[in-house]
């Protein structure tokens, strides 16, 4: 429990004065105007070895100790990337049962990525940071930016898709704007945590090109452009060393090459030894010894690897304080940036502004995958039959550490009912997972239904024929082997035999729309039968409102897919040719840089829906791309402009995507790579010119033989379009 800040500062000042009045002679580290580095050095110089060791490991499930003698407060962490987890008991995972810690659930980060709108990321970071601040949290354990390598990874819904550039662009504003609240973002899980089943034991190996070109860029952007104050080390191993203390990933790359000055926080239960944790860059150990993931033992926190075992080695002289002082500096820097940041405000929780932000991000992230005959939007006065468990099931409870206790969650059915001017009926259609509790939080829903599959389908089919429109709301959920932490999905298909329900519905009523609530690609055997398909993500507290906004045309959908939908699982790189997944122990990512659309294009495999795909209720026409010069010299840049017109009757937004193709390269390169994007809003008939600036960085690839980023002179193509498989115009240029 934390005391309020004013009282705390008074106590701290008194305690500082009381115990150091005689000998105090340096800058007042409580002086808010002193440079942080002075405050860090001052505090460090006062701390005993015991106090130093105390601040580099947890003291409870989500807090680490401060230095009471010096008036330095403890540090409080909280999950998660989509909202602020309910308060937990000191050493429990279950919620403490407070009545004032319900929160706003913002859309999952796949939805944020699908907005392709950097402003939405800034709004997201600001809003969730305000909720963390109000809840007195110093470190937000998110966002996650692990790359989608396999569509079966249970945690893909928490991340930003398959492309390193999109993930990097969309993580930076989130980090910056969380931190403007005086709350640290803790970017996770660094690095190569791309599956769940064997996340504690898989030992990932891959070539350096894939490491630098695919799996690290989003983390690098978060650190170097976002200025992240914390990074969470991953459970998995890389090159035989645990991710959370890893000589190459943490010491050499994160802290060396990238100059990260923040704190590396272990994932909960990711620390397994003292020496390596000391030497290879772990700064703050959470959730181990008490195995960190299930239950605590008495005085467990003193037994953490960076606690008494480390203290003993310091006392015996096995370690000097060299590594210790570096860890403590980083933790103190984190504390001065957050808990002792005297600039910060008081935040806000469950404000109308946050609900509006959640709704706007959802509105902008929903992807219109298909809309034959412009079936959508649905007219106000159309009678509607809504079918499917996901139309009513709460999705903010469950799924692992991102699970929340929300103040409200508008279901898709309620959103549709509230918006429609005509009658809206509901049929269950199928029964999936009737559960609804996680870590002591209950959805309060009783979804039990004793009817058989046949009875459920028969009811839905009979009602379908009587409605003007049928809206099937299905997809995945946060249950085990669905979109959930700790386990992976077992297949690409929809669970609970939803495919049969969809096929039956569209036969009964051709005006059937499928709205998928999910965070991962799924297969769609019915894709040619169904005229309209929406990818709706996990939208959080305002889910039903965002879905209704798009369904009824109050919002013109503008989302674009942040990942490829494979037509079949074996089409995707992690499963190609019957490759083993999930895999324990040593695992080589032998597709290398060919992840996502890079793979599908390299292998000429047609996806079900392509990276960057997303339709609109209007039509955007592209003119010819023009370059302001035909060649670029050393350090130069080329401007590429393309006119875009809204040729329809409805205002809308289009994300213009720029891909670069290196026509000839000494090493294999993908057919094309996303290197910029711009989202523009155009009224009916309106035109605008989008201009991209290309510099050498956008032409580089990582040459592992030189351990350097390299742009080779020669011919390049700038490909500009509405999706990775919908290039509208292109222009060539050369790099001298
Ligand atoms: C979990 C997750 C991590 C989360 C942490 C605390 O195991 O991997 O994302 O922030 O532990 O709940």
**Low-confidence spans:** 11-28
Query: What would the average pLDDT be, to the nearest integer?
Result: 94
Helix content: 25-40%
**Count of DSSP E strands?**
29
Gyration radius (Cα, Å) is: 26 Å
Small-molecule binders here are: alpha-D-glucopyranose
Instruction: Classify the fold: give the CATH topology of the domain at 618-735.
Output: Immunoglobulin-like
Q: Termini, distance in Å?
A: 62 Å
- Classify the beta-strand content into a percent band: 15-25%
Number of helices: 18
The CATH superfamily of the domain at 618-735 is Immunoglobulins
Report the biggest beta sheet as strand number plus sense, adding barrel if it closes.
6 strands, mixed
Which structural class do you get from the secondary structure elements?
Answer: alpha/beta
Q: Quick one: CATH class of the domain at 618-735? A: Mainly Beta
Based on the coordinates given, report the CATH architecture of the domain at 618-735: Sandwich
Backbone shape: globular
**Which strand order do you get reading across the main beta sheet?**
1-2-3-4-6-9
């Amino acid at each position: 429990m934390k005391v309020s800040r004013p009282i705390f500062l008074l106590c701290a000042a008194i305690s500082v004065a009381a115990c150091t009045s005689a000998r105090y002679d340096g800058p007042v580290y409580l002086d808010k105007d002193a440079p942080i580095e002075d405050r860090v050095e001052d505090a460090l110089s006062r701390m005993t070895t015991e106090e130093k060791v105390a601040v580099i490991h947890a003291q409870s499930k989500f807090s680490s100790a401060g230095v009471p003698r010096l008036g330095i407060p403890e540090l409080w962490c909280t999950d998660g990337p989509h909202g602020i987890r309910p308060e937990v008991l000191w050493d429990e995972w279950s919620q403490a049962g407070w009545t004032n810690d319900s929160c706003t659930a913002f859309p999952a980060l796949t939805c944020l990525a699908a907005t392709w709108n950097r402003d939405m990321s800034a709004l997201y970071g600001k809003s969730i940071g305000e909720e963390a601040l109000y809840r007195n949290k110093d470190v937000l354990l998110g966002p996650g930016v692990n790359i989608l390598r396999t569509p079966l990874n249970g945690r893909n819904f928490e991340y930003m898709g398959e492309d390193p550039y999109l993930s990097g662009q969309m993580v930076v504003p989130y980090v910056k704007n969380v931190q403007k609240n005086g709350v640290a973002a803790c970017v996770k899980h660094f690095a190569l945590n791309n599956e769940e089943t064997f996340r504690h034991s898989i030992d990932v190996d891959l070539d350096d090109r894939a490491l630098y070109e695919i799996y690290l860029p989003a983390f690098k952007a978060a650190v170097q452009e976002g200025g992240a104050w914390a990074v969470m080390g991953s459970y998995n191993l890389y090159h035989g060393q645990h991710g959370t203390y890893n000589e190459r990933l943490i010491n050499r790359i994160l802290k060396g090459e990238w100059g990260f000055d923040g704190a590396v926080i272990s994932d909960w239960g990711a620390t397994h030894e003292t020496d390596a944790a000391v030497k290879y860059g772990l700064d703050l150990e959470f959730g181990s010894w008490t195995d960190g993931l299930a239950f605590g033992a008495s005085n467990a926190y003193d037994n953490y690897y960076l606690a008494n075992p480390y203290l003993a080695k310091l006392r015996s002289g096995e370690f000097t304080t060299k590594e210790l002082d570096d860890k403590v500096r980083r933790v103190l820097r984190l504390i001065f940036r957050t808990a002792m940041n005297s600039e910060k405000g008081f935040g806000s929780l469950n404000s109308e502004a946050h609900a509006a932000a959640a709704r706007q991000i959802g509105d902008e992230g929903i992807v219109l995958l298909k809309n034959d005959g412009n079936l959508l939007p649905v007219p106000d006065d159309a009678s509607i039959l809504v079918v499917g468990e996901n139309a009513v099931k709460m999705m903010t409870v469950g799924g692992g550490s991102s699970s929340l206790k929300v103040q409200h969650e508008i279901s898709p059915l309620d959103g549709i009912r509230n918006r429609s001017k005509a009658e809206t009926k509901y049929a269950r259609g199928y029964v999936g997972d009737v559960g609804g509790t996680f870590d002591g939080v209950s959805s309060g829903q009783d979804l039990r239904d004793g009817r058989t599959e046949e009875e459920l389908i028969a009811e839905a089919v009979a009602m379908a024929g009587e409605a003007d429109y049928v809206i099937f709301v299905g997809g995945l959920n946060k249950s085990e082997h669905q979109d959930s932490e700790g386990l992976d999905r077992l297949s690409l298909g929809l669970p609970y035999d939803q495919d049969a329900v969809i096929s039956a519905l569209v036969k009964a009523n051709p005006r059937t729309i499928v709205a998928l609530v999910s965070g991962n690609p799924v297969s769609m055997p019915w894709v040619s039968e169904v005229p309209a398909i929406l990818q709706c993500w996990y939208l959080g507290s305002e889910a039903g409102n965002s879905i209704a906004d798009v369904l009824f045309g109050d919002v013109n959908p503008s989302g674009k897919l942040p990942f490829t939908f494979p037509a079949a699982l074996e089409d995707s790189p992690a499963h190609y040719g019957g490759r083993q997944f999930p895999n324990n122990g040593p695992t080589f990512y032998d597709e290398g840089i060919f992840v996502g659309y890079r793979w599908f294009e390299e292998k000429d495999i047609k996806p079900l829906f392509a990276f960057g795909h997303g339709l609109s209720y209007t039509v955007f026409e592209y003119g010819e791309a023009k370059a302001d010069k035909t060649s670029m010299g050393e350090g130069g840049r080329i401007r590429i402009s393309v006119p875009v017109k809204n040729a329809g009757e409805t205002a809308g937004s289009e994300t213009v995507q720029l891909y670069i193709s290196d026509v000839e390269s000494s090493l294999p390169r993908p057919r094309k790579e996303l290197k910029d994007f711009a989202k523009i809003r155009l009224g009916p008939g309106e035109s605008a010119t989008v201009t991209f600036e290309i510099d050498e960085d956008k032409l580089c690839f990582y040459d592992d033989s030189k351990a350097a980023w390299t742009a080779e002179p020669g011919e390049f193509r700038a490909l500009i379009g509405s999706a990775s498989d919908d290039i509208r115009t292109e222009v060539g240029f050369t790099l001298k």
